[in-house]
Design a protein that fits this description.
The structure holds 2 protein chains of 2 kinds. Chain A is mostly helical. Helix content of chain A is 73%, strand content 4%. Chain A has a single domain, classed as Orthogonal Bundle (ABC transporter involved in vitamin B12 uptake, BtuC). Chain A is globular. The radius of gyration of chain B is 22 Å and the shape is globular. The chains are: A mainly alpha, B alpha/beta.
């Protein structure tokens, strides 16, 4: 009985606050998971450096606003451009030379890129945490009755939905998107059909990294401590979110992000005694879902394995 | 023009090479007349800010007291990367490869404990800087420390909370951190003695590296605690307090000595104003001659106010030097015996006397954050 005490004692206001917290965290996971899933969907390759690209974008924002005093709106545009460029460079250096190598080699190369970025950040920016610049417009508090919402928590779901719609439009209704889908189906055939696959893949990384930058900005405003290892846990969680939703499926990533974010908050809400095991929740959900739906909730049923 | 540039570059390179060589030969000549002290601290990773401050203290102490027994003291500095496994291997490397006579460090009880068996087995004395968990020196004749221990620190904070009218307290601990869990336990024991068995209304856990605390804080908000005791790493603690204020929690936050780093204020901003935590040192209580010297030199060398971490690290070095001097030998076991009998050694944080566990008997300072700076509130002496 004691186990369910949290559940029984919870008031309506607390529950609403938990839901707000969950949606805020979930949409953040969703935003970063989209980038993961997009790269996978097209290249069938897990970009393990994605979380670290998020981390680098946080540092870019820090340098733009705190060190060089550029207004935040210009900085954010700059951060997105710089991060997209970083993504393209990583693709050029770490993945393109392995285009015709076995999938496993690329996977290892991705892990290498991830470590490289972490250690580079450690070396360049030191391990001492820095504070993500405070932007009062986003960090201010809004109270609805007894429920407190940070402005950014209302912005994040909107940004996530817009990113989702824009991305779906690019993939489904543009020429680049059509090329991306062709590459994803079979890149040998796509190459034969005259598609410049190097350009298409570069474009994929540029879009994926730009999404990582948007995610990083949202993450930084919500959780303003920046360290070189900042990207590790979100990277892992968002990868799980993408897998839960069906990796390769953009809508699935958003769904997975929300399931994970809401789940993490609600498990602590209903079972306060389990607060130390929150991270385990993500992995247990992953195992259960993969057990019943090996390709994730919205994933296509295929026989291919990574 | 191009030619001139290359001449300049070539000469710059040559000068660089020459000075490089000069340094090396000098080091070789002095080798026979050097006594090595190993320093293992987290200079990268989650605890880097704390490690960096302690390194400052040790370097400053080495600058002001560069010699013992007529030999030059050479610091061998190693980074334990805020990682327990790394801490153990770095300590072993300093002892086995670099042959250090005394080991200083580390910031963080978990990191120090990781090296515990190594110093014990290789019979090289170690002096902890700011590792406050009692387990560090317990059952280990070779581990000593410069800071007070958590049972004392926990009691000080429990008394402080009770004195300021708190009767219902919630605890939020960093469950993967030995220091935080230990401190939370001692606080809980002491507070229950003062305010009764139901006075601790919640013990919530989070993991090192967590960023989102909104769920545990929403639960705690509904319980309306008078105060929240939240020992843990400074980055997580700052984010935790920030999110608590966003959720409208007005209860004061109490913590331990790990909070005294500039990063805590940088990340926490206006939200950490008014917190209270215990620490080992403040200018207000700096009465010894050594403290005066330390304060002057610190400001000259690093600009800005020294923190307790730098002061403790400075004292750890002094305890080592004092031990070597009294042992009148460079034999590690003899140095250990001398350190064990340290009595009234004048340092920055007062006079240090080590008890039979190797822990100093000294009081604690309580500080807060006001206008973006750490401010002294109170001093609690050992009874």
């Amino acid at each position: 009985m004691e186990f369910f005490q949290g559940f029984l004692n919870m008031s309506g206001a607390s529950f609403a606050q938990h839901m707000v917290n969950g949606v805020s965290l979930g949409s953040l996971y969703a935003l970063i998971a989209i980038g993961y899933t997009m790269v996978y969907g097209i290249l069938l390759m897990i970009n393990f450096a994605h979380g670290d690209i998020v981390m680098m974008a946080c540092y870019f924002a820090y340098f733009g606003i705190t060190i060089f005093h550029v207004p935040w709106y210009f900085t954010f545009i700059g951060v997105i451009v710089a991060t997209a460029l970083l993504g393209a460079i990583i693709e050029r250096m770490a993945y393109r030379p392995l285009r015709d190598a076995p999938k496993n080699s690329v996977l290892i190369s991705a892990i290498g890129a991830s470590f490289l970025l972490e250690n580079l950040a450690n070396y360049l920016f030191s391990g001492r945490p820095m504070s993500f610049p405070d932007i009062p417009l986003f960090s201010q508090n809004i109270a609805i009755g007894s429920i407190k919402i940070q402005a950014i928590s209302m912005v994040i779901p909107v940004v996530t939905i817009i990113s989702l719609l824009v991305l779906l439009h690019i993939v489904n209704h543009t020429k680049t998107g059509m090329a991306m889908r062709a590459v994803s189906k079979d890149y040998e055939i796509a190459r034969v059909m005259g598609i410049n696959i190097d350009n298409v893949i570069s474009m994929t990384f540029i879009i994926g990294s730009a999404l990582a930058a948007i995610g990083a900005i949202m993450w930084g405003i919500r959780y303003p401590g920046i360290t070189p290892y900042l990207g590790v846990m979100p990277g892992l969680k968002c990868f799980i979110a993408a897998v839960i939703g069906g990796i390769g499926n953009i809508k699935g990533a958003v769904l997975g992000g929300f399931i994970l974010g809401l789940g993490e908050i609600l498990i602590v809400a209903f079972f306060p005694d389990l607060s130390g095991y929150r991270d385990a929740f993500a992995f247990i959900v992953l195992i259960i879902i993969l057990f019943y739906r090996p390709t994730g909730i919205l994933g296509e049923r295929t026989t291919e394995k990574v | 023009m191009k030619k001139m540039m290359s001449v300049i570059l070539a000469s710059a390179l040559a000068v660089g090479l020459l000075t490089g060589c000069g340094g090396d030969t000098k080091k070789d000549d002095a080798k026979s007349n050097v006594i090595k002290i190993g320093v293992f601290l987290p200079l990268t990773g989650d605890n880097a800010a704390g490690g960096e401050l302690e390194l400052r203290g040790i370097k400053l102490a080495n600058k002001l007291h560069p010699e013992v027994l007529g030999k030059k003291v050479e610091l061998v500095i190693a980074d334990n990367k805020s990682d327990k496994a790394e801490a153990a291997s770095v300590a072993a490397r300093l002892i086995e490869r670099d042959k250090v006579k005394v080991l200083l460090g580390s910031y963080g009880s978990s990191l120090s404990m990781a090296a515990g068996n190594i110093v014990k087995n290789s019979k090289v004395p170690a002096i902890g800087t700011s590792c406050t968990n009692p387990q560090v020196t317990a059952n280990n004749d070779f581990y000593f420390r410069a800071c007070f221990i958590d049972p004392f620190q926990g009691t000080v904070m429990a008394n402080y909370a009770f004195k300021n009218g708190a009767r219902k307290v919630a605890i939020i601990q960093e469950v993967s951190n030995d220091y935080a869990v230990g401190l939370a336990k001692f606080f809980k024991d002491a507070f229950i003695k003062l305010a009764g068995p139901d006075s601790i209304i919640e013990v919530a856990n989070y993991q090192t590296g967590d960023k989102d605390f909104s769920a545990i804080l929403t639960n705690i908000k509904a319980m309306h605690p008078d105060a929240i005791f939240a020992p843990g790493n400074f980055t997580e603690s700052a984010l935790l307090i920030k999110q608590a204020r966003q959720l409208g929690i007005k209860a004061p936050f109490l913590g331990g000595d790990t909070w005294e780093t500039q990063e805590f204020i940088n990340v926490g901003g206006a939200d950490v104003e008014g917190v209270a935590f215990s620490t080992a040192f403040d200018r207000e209580k700096a009465t010894t001659a050594e403290a005066k010297k330390f304060l002057d030199e610190y400001v000259k060398e690093y600009k800005g106010e020294p923190s307790a971490l730098s002061a403790l690290a400075y004292d750890a070095y002094l305890i080592a030097i004092d031990g070597i001097k009294r042992a009148n030998s460079t034999d590690s076991v003899k140095i250990r015996d001398a350190i064990a009998t340290t009595k009234d050694m004048e340092g920055v944080t007062g006079k240090t006397t080590l008890d039979k566990n190797g822990d100093p008997i000294k009081g604690a300072v309580i500080k807060t954050v006001r206008d973006g700076k750490f401010k002294y509130i109170d001093f609690v002496d050992v009874k």
